[in-house]
Structure formats: C-alpha cells, structure tokens
Amino acid sequence: MKLKITSFALLLVVVISTAFIVPVRKPVSYKVDVEKSSLTWSGKKLTGGHNGTIGLQSGELLADGKKLTGGNFVINMTTIKDADKSDRLEGHLKADDFFGVDKFATSNFVVKKVAAAGANKVTITGDLTIKGVTNSITFPATVAWNADGSIAATADKIIVDRTKFGIKFRSKGMFPDIGDKMIYDEFELAVKLVAKK
C-alpha cells in the first residue's frame, strides 16, 4: 500500500511538473534583402570630414512574434565608397592604414541582446568584428513591422572607436603630437536592414 501511494505521489509530481512547462518557441528567421538595405559611414578630422556608403553582403533578423530577438549582418568592406567620389580616399580606406580589405574583405555584427526601450524602440548590444578584432557595442534602434510581412530595423547612430580595432592612423590618442593632421578616433555608422521570411 505504501509503495502504491509513493508511486502515485511521484506520478502526480511528474504530471504537475510537465503541465507547467512552457514550450520553447524557435525564433523565426528573416533574410536581409541587401538591395533594399543600406549602410552609411561618416568620419571627421580636425579640418573637415568625409562620408559615404558600404555594401551589405548578407544578414538575418530573428523574431519571436512581434519581438526582435537577434540577428547579424555581414559588411562587404571592398565596397567602401566616398560620397565625394575620391578614388584616393577610397583607396586609402581600403589600405592597411584603415580597413585592410585585401586581408579583411568583410566585417560583421552579431546581436547578443535586444532590450525594449519604448514603442518600436530597442537597445541592441552585440559583437562588431573589424580587421579580425571583436568588440562589444551598444546602440539604439527602431524596429518596424511592415504590412508586407517584412521587418525594417534602423539604427541612425552607431558610434565606433576605430582604435579598439587596431586602426590607429593619425589618432590623437595614439599620437599626441599629430597636430592639425589628426583624425578623430570615433566614426559613425547608420544601418537600415529590411528583411523578409
């Protein structure tokens, strides 16, 4: 009798435990449309600044219902363009002084955390890899769920400290005596990812 009661109690515990297990939903993958997406850059020096574009190679956004949960994108560094169409500047940005695209043809970003920050607003933290060096960065973004079933994730101001990725050319922090030839350590990226199932 005691054995039957013990067995029944154990069965009851198992049934109750399984009744409260919430099934884990796998996030839905949305593929980034690189033609509809964009990535722009801007950098400043003491005597002015430059800006332009870089092409995206691929990407993915992950969502659970109407909630962004993760994602990544790959940047084709060989496509760096200067808005003023300066071949000299584009060549220098592709050289070892800056992004060394012969050796490091791509950079990438992997989302590690997405925190809600208001209506359609999120704060994204993830790992950015440039020239084989990875650092964590955090930035605000906006997420829109479009009528055609696509997602648009936009970050207008991603601040990157180039020296953390080994890009030290004319950095005042690295070369205090550089004078008016200095280039600011931080540059900005703006990215818009449009993705669909």
Uncertain runs = none
Structural class: mainly beta
CATH topology: Lipocalin
Mean pLDDT: 90
Proportion of strand residues: over 45%
Span between N and C termini? Answer: 58 Å
Overall geometry comes to: elongated
Number of domains: 1
CATH class: Mainly Beta
Order of helices and strands: HEEEEHEEEEE
CATH architecture: Beta Barrel
The biggest beta sheet is recorded as:
9 strands, antiparallel
SS summary, helix count = 2
Radius of gyration: 23 Å
Please estimate the helix content: 10-25%
Protein model, in words:
13% of the residues lie in helices and 53% in strands. Strand 3 and strand 4 form a beta hairpin. The mean pLDDT is 90. The longest helix has 18 residues, at 2-19. The termini are far apart. It has one domain (26-196): Lipid/polyisoprenoid-binding, YceI-like (Lipocalin, Beta Barrel), CATH 2.40.128.110. It has two helices and nine strands. It is mainly beta. Strands 1, 2, 3, 4, 5, 6, 7, 8 and 9 form a nine-stranded antiparallel sheet that branches. It is elongated. The protein has helices at residues 2-19, 87-94, and strands at 28-32, 38-45, 48-64, 67-82, 106-116, 121-130, 133-145, 151-161, 183-196. InterPro entries: Lipid/polyisoprenoid-bd_YceI, TTHA0802/YceI-like_sf. Residues 29-196 form the Lipid/polyisoprenoid-binding YceI-like domain. This is YceI family protein.
